[in-house]
Structures are given as C-alpha cells and as structure tokens.
Amino acid sequence: MRIANVADRAHLVLPAGDGTDRLLDIAEISEQRFGPSLSALYDAWDEFRSWADDASFDAEAGLPVDRTALQAPSPRPRQVFAIGLNYDEHAAESGFEPPTDLPPVFTKYVSAFTGPDTEVQIPSGGNVDWEVELVVVIGRQAHRIDEDSAWGHVAGVTIGQDLSERITQLRGPAPQFGLGKSYPGFAPQGPYLVTPNELPDRDDLEIGCRIDDEVVQCGRTKEMIFNVPALIAKISENVTLYPGDIIFTGTPAGVGLGRTPQRFLVAGETLHTWIEGIGEMTQRFV
Ligand code: ZN
C-alpha cells in the first residue's frame, strides 16, 4: 500500500489502467471512518490496515497525482528521531569510530519538513550538505519492544534528505545538530509512505542521490550498523514511540563534508534522491 499526503488529507495511491497513479481520499472512501489527516490515520493504523486489506477500490475514480502538491507523509509527528553514524564508511569519512552499543540520536525540527519536490534556500554563507536516508514512520505505540516485533510497529517507510548546514552543526563547544539540520526545507520527505510489504526487501534497499548528473551517494540499507528493528528496539528502551513518529535512519558514505576537498551545494544545483521500491525526490537549491 502507498499513501500520499495532499493538503493534509491522506490518500491511497493506486495504479490506474493507463499506467499512471491515481489518488483516492481515504476519509471519503471509508465514509469518514479514517483520516482525514495523516496524523488521524496513523492513530488508527492497525484498524485502517485491516479495513483496507478487505476493501476493494476503484483506481479509475481517483485524481491524477500532482507532485508539486505532495507533502511529507507524516507532517506533524509528536517526535522526530535522527540517527548519526549508522553506516561504517560514513562514520569513517566523518572521522569517528563506528558505534557499537548505541548510535548518536538527535532531532530535526518539524518546521523543516516539506514534501518531496521543492526549492531549498541556501542560508547565507552556509555549507549545505546532502544525506539521503530511509525514513521510518511508526504505526503503533512502542515502548521497550524487541527487535523481532519491531517491524510490526512500523506503518511504512519513505525517502528523506537530512540536509545539513555544517557550519552551524559544528559551531560552539558541542555540536548543534538540531539547529544546523533544521533550516526551512531541510527535511524533505516523500513521495509516498510505502508499507513494508510493498518493498522488494524491507531490510535491503538501494539508497542514493546525485547532484545533477553526478552520483554522490549510493549504498544499500542492509549496510546499516543498526538496522530498522535494532533502531526501534534501542530508541524504545528509553522513549515511548507514538504513531506518526519519524526516524531518519542515517546516511551512507559520500557526503560533501567527508570529501577532499570538501564540497557543498550551490545555487542552481539540483539534488535527486532515490530509494528502491519507494521512488525519488528532487530538491533545487537557490
Ligand atoms: Zn543524517
């Protein structure tokens, strides 16, 4: 199942006979039982899934997809977690030993959230870097859950960019991850929430991004040091996860900060980001 956010209303995404995707408003097709907002949908996620699995839908009655209208699949989570140093080669390029017990956990503020296709303003004098990440959306409250049941607490996954302004991020006596990674537009996500059963292999997806025509990151999610179940188990040891909560799961190698010479995004460049089985996003920098 794929779900889109248009005007903060949850929509099912279904293929029509002509090969294009169509959108069905979930509140309308469920006669107001689910939604209309994405938050309301995640709060009733298990109930919604069992209803949707038994229902049949007419894709031809749906509206065509306007990509410029798509918004983040979970636009107002109660909590946003982001994971640092979760791929070996990225830890190495960042100058750190890979984490063994617990990776760094920080946040990106919700004000930075956008949909998948956007223009992003580079802060004056800023060193803006790219970080493609698999983003997990929680579908069931989770506290102290084990790895074996962790995927059962996931509504779905989407693509994210953990855009990072490195000067702010590294300013002062201790790193300022939250501020440096939360300028407006620095957390684009989308295009859709994809449920894990739709993926070719939920634990092993190609993940990458390119600047214009040059591929700068390309890895596989199976290379994560802490995979999705391990992250959910580790975070939920301390914190209660709620439906709609977001986890940015860390980035593979190839960021600009780790290059010699270092490289950052400049106005006029376009960042294309993809994950196998989910789709792609486009950020144009101004
Ligand atoms: Zn990151």
Q: What would you say this structure looks like, in words?
A:
The protein is of the alpha+beta class and 286 residues long. It folds into two domains: 2-65, no CATH class; 72-285, Fumarylacetoacetate hydrolase, domain 2 (Alpha-Beta Complex), CATH 3.90.850.10. The protein contains eight helices and 19 strands. It has helices spanning 26-29, 38-43, 45-54, 88-93, 147-150, 166-169, 177-180, 228-238, and strands spanning 2-6, 9-15, 21-25, 63-64, 70-71, 80-83, 105-106, 113-114, 117-120, 128-129, 132-138, 154-161, 164-165, 187-194, 206-211, 214-220, 246-248, 270-275, 279-285. The strands form three sheets. Strands 1, 2, 3, 4, 5, 6, 7, 8, 11, 12, 14 and 17 form a twelve-stranded mixed sheet that branches. A hairpin with a 5-residue loop joins strand 2 and strand 3. The chain is globular and about 55 Å long. The mean pLDDT is 97.
Broad shape? globular
End-to-end gap: 34 Å
Task: Output the helix-strand order.
Answer: EEEHHHEEEHEEEEEHEEHHEEEHEEE
> Mean pLDDT score, rounded?
97
Helix content: 10-25%
Largest sheet: 12 strands, mixed
- CATH class (first level) name of the largest domain: Alpha Beta
Q: Indicate the radius of gyration in whole angstroms.
A: 18 Å
> What is the annotated CATH architecture of the largest domain?
Alpha-Beta Complex
What class, by secondary structure content? alpha+beta
User: How many beta-strand elements?
Assistant: 19
The ligands bound in this entry are:
zinc ion
Low-confidence stretches: none
Tally of discrete structural domains = 2
Enumerate how many helices there are, as a single number. 8
State which percent range the strand residues make up. 25-35%
Give the name of the CATH superfamily of the largest domain: Fumarylacetoacetase-like, C-terminal domain
